[in-house]
Amino acid sequence: MRLCRPYYLLTLLPISIFDSCIMTLIEKYFPNLNDLQKQRFAQLQDLYTLWNSRINVISRKDIDELECHHVLHSLGITRMINFKPGTSILDFGTGGGFPGIPLAILFPECRFTLVDSTGKKVRVAGEVASELGLTNVVTIHARGEEIKSRYEFVVSRAVTNLPDLVKFVKHLIAKESKNALPNGLVCLKGGDVQAEIRTFRKSVIVEDLYPVFEEEFFKTKKVIYLPL
């Protein structure tokens, strides 16, 4: 297990100390992070290890692979889009905060709403966001159909099949666009997605995360965009 320091000490240490403890894969693929972003990414392993020991949001055997399987995977959204400042994003079915929290660190000038129907998972996401000082994150314990606000983008990771996901979120998309892509859904998927995208073949865009991310884990991983 890779623990940099006891998590309760993290906020007491100067930002420069975190250079040796930053997640190496994140630094490899995102070399232009500022000091605050480095600090926040550096805290994730310890924070999630602590909270996962209390509330199981990540499988016990997978917690040691947090950087690759959860944090970097979440940042695979950037393979499709880099959000402009001021963009509003809903993380639908966030679980313990993925992909929303890593994206909120990377895009501090965007607004992220993390929603999940399981209260204990949303609690973990909220506590982690609070510990990190992510003022651009709001967490909501609710079902998707209960959300009334509108967002420029909905992001998700392994929530459900694409046709059902579209049904759940299409009413949540705002009309006015300001990003390089029109407003819509950006989701992370694994395996063969051909059956899922068949209905949307004329408008869907699918990008492989491998070999942009070189690790074996990403060989079957994809990011999918669908304008809504």
Automatic annotation (TrEMBL):
Binding residues annotated for S-adenosyl-L-methionine, in chain numbering: 93, 98, 116-118, 144-145, 157
Subcellular location: Cytoplasm
Keywords recorded for this protein, A-Z: Cytoplasm, Membrane, Methyltransferase, rRNA processing, S-adenosyl-L-methionine, Transferase, Transmembrane, Transmembrane helix
Record's GO cellular component terms: cytosol
Root EC class: transferase
CDD domains with a match to the protein in the record: AdoMet_MTases
Function description: Specifically methylates the N7 position of a guanine in 16S rRNA.
Protein name (Swiss-Prot/TrEMBL): Ribosomal RNA small subunit methyltransferase G
Species name: Porphyromonas macacae
Gene label: rsmG
